[in-house]
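Open question from group meeting: does this chain pack into something compact, or does most of it stay loose? Before anyone orders reagents, we agreed to write out a predicted structure and look at it together. Recording both the input and the output here so the notebook holds the full record.
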Amino acid sequence: MTATLIWILVVLVAIGLYLSWTAGRLDRLHARIDAARAALDAQLLRRASVAQELATSGVLDPAASIVLYEAAHAARQAEEEQREVAESELSQALRAVFADPQQVEAVREEPGGDDAARELTEAVRRVPMARRFHNDAVGAARRLREHRKVRWFRLAGHAPFPLAFEMDDEPPVTLTDRAG
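Structure tokens returned:
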């Protein structure tokens, strides 16, 4: 009888340790999501700031400046629930403004334009990477949260279900070709 109780106790401790390890892993994934989201927000803000700065610099034609400025301003001011749409519209505006390679060359020929174009190129290249890191972390947490043991024992606590950040983040081809 005593041996059976010891074995039951050992099994219960092992299950408790496993559940504790799983809860810790889930907590680390949620922390990773928070860090990745902060990095994504920083890259989106940087891209919008660079685009807004370029739009107000006078190196673009007036129509392109207005389109780019309005899209960048909307992306910076968007509420959380409208952020994905606003950021996608900024991506579309960047592609529209820089669809013509001559536009990029005109920017580069202006004083300080080469630095501005380089900074914009870096900004538009980092956004897809930051979004991919965030969405990978979200995917890992979602897969773990779908396990029965996590649901049954409520190992996620009160943490909100992680959501991926879906947006159009394709950079303008004219900027990525030159930098590559």
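Observations to bring back to the group:
The radius of gyration is 24 Å.
The mean pLDDT is 93.
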